[in-house]
Amino acid sequence: MGIFDIFGTGDQEQAARDQIAHLQQGYSDLSGLFGQGRNALSTNYNAALQPLQQNYGLGNAGNQMLARLLGFGGGGGSSGGGNTTGATGSALPATNAITAGGGGATAGGGGSSDIMQTLQSIPGYQFTLDQGNQNILRNQAATGQLNSGGTLADLQRYGQGLASQNYFNYVNALQPQTGAAANAASGIAGVNTGLGQGLNQSYMTQGNAAYGTQAGVGNALAQKDLAGLTQSGNILGAGLGIGAALLSDERAKDDIEPVGELFDGQTVYRYRYKGDPRHQIGLIAQEVEDRDPDAVVPFGDLKAVNYKTATNWAAELGKLV
Fold it and tell me: How far is 178 from 171, CA to CA, in rounded Å?
């Protein structure tokens, strides 16, 4: 740093540029890390959602089948009969009403045909029904009663019994799906809530970091703008740093013009310190040194004047005026 640097703002401006550059670089790096953190949040939360969504899908499918078995599936059919074809190809009366204890029942908003259709769609039911019907037909054929009314009655009783038995078995088996679907739905809601909270916290933290960065930039710019106001303070501080002396070297001044003289004949000058637009009035150290070397002290490569020592004789002469 040269001696004249204290009269300029170059150092402050460079410091402000360095500070702003580092603040902006820091925020850029931080933004990348925030982005990575949010990606990690989304990835992990999505991974947590997958098994919950699978469980919810299975549980919900079970719920829908249970609803249809209970008659909530819509598509109400009548309790009247259609026909199903048995293993032998003969026309058999279909069991369209699910009975328990001999009584027919239709439940909820769905018709009995819808309930029966759902029951028949359950894996294993139709196979069991066909196997049972074949046994009845073989027994009736073996006893010579295949074409009797008893065959139809036996087939109907077997179909009703199988339907009733399987109905309650499947209803009981499907009921846990309600809880499973509810638990999975609750888990999905929890995961989504956690993701939302995590992302919100990330954005808030990044927002605070952005605010801090801009505040730092503003402070750096303010310090740079105020640097010019501290120039004269730097000059004064340079003089006070060597006691009662003030920097008065002509090499530190511009626009030097004589404006008068003291009672002892010393010339008084108007001038500006280099880098300072304001004008000052004072002596020139080199001229003072020629008259009174004790009134001048070194300041690095420059010279400063102890104004009390340099003006003692002028003050005494002034008393005689």
Answer: 11
